[in-house]
Amino acid sequence: MKKFFVLSLIIVAMLTSVIRAQTQATTTPNNQTGIEGSVTMSPVEGGPTRQGSSDSRPLANMSFEVKQGDRVITSFQTDGQGHFRQALEPGHYTVVRKDWKSAVGFYGPFEIVVGRGKMTAVDWKCDTGLR
Question: Residue range 57-63: average pLDDT?
């Protein structure tokens, strides 16, 4: 009877550990940890820049991938003004333009380190390759 009781306690303890491990949520980034900022591109016209006019503009509605090594973690898209906000766990990431195949222009990779408990501000400038 005593062996049965001890064996029952061991089984209950093991099952509790398994259930607890399965119900613990994987850590998900909260809205206060990640990256936010803007992406611009320049030059937007070939040739010399005209005096008094800007030769850069927001990189609007463009998709980017967030990677750790070769693994894609998530993706995001800039809004109409080139702004974005992406929740991420703390860590080191590489951000690149999604599905970019051209040899002309520079749209990343941008290296970023996300700190714990804060939104990391970025201001990335892309080179269109126009000259």
Answer: 94
